[in-house]
Amino acid sequence: MKIARKTNDSGSVEVNNYKQPWQVRFRPYLIMAPAMIITIGIMYPFITAIYYSFTNFKFGSRAYEFIWFNNWISMFTNASFWKAFWVTARYAILSTGLEMLLGMGIAILLSKSNRYTNALRILLVFPLMVAPVMATLIWQLMLNNSVGIIEKFLNVFGIFNFPWASSPQTAMMTAVMIDIWVNAPFVILLIFAGMQSLPKSPFEAAKIDGGSTWFTFKNLTLPMLKPFIYTALIFRLMAAIMEFSIPFALTKGGPGNTLMNLSITAYNTGFAYKNLGKAMPYVLIMWIIINLISKRLVKGWQSAQKTAAGR
What we know:
- Helices cover about 70% and strands about 5% of the residues.
- The chain is mainly alpha-helical.
- It folds into 2 domains: about 1-55, no CATH class; about 80-310, MetI-like fold (Orthogonal Bundle), CATH 1.10.3720.10.
- Strands 1-2 form a two-stranded antiparallel sheet.
- Helix 7 packs across helix 9 (about 170-195), helix 9 runs antiparallel to helix 12 and helix 11 runs antiparallel to helix 14.
């Protein structure tokens, strides 16, 4: 409500009270509504997961009780958890590391524009349009020992019946290879976009001064690309730690427990064995790991931003 004061001809003050239109009064709440809905949509499942992690809740059973830290103790003392932890770490490090190296290398090559690189830029978008599960099924067909096109190609070099995902020795390599095909284009396009945004004048000055290609890359290109590299690293590492679709569609965590990461272990515990309370600590430990790593990477990104801005 607003109060309007007006002085009339006799010198007295007239006070008029009037209400603002409801659209104006409720505008702040309408602006905040989407953010509040998203926050509730994120926090409600998160709080529910914490709640059930302290219970023995099972699907199909209405009765459950608090068992406090028993699920957490059981998880940390279970050998399958530590196996899943190291599988998750190995998968995340291999896939993310190779994607970053290939992404940066290919992005640098694509920055040299010609008729071939223009076509490659268009082709790189296609893997991003394919769902990871569908990409895995396509790769399974291509790697098939009977009709797979890659198997036929290997036969030319005298390699027959390569085990791929059917062997514990090569299953991780196969899953990482599929992950690279699906997600490396994201890294390539992000770093390529960063290279396109770099200022031209420092590179022209380095060329005039006779700076070598390696000197220019080490002292100009790489430092200025660090914010984009950190951005790609944050997104890809978080996704690799949570990766479920590719290992599950490929072998459902096998052969044996070769690809049994934390996501698949949580899925099997919660849905296959219907023990939701016991599965929640696996989900929450992934959240803790991702939260700790992402905070460290965000600090690196902020430092890289300041360094790039100061140049």
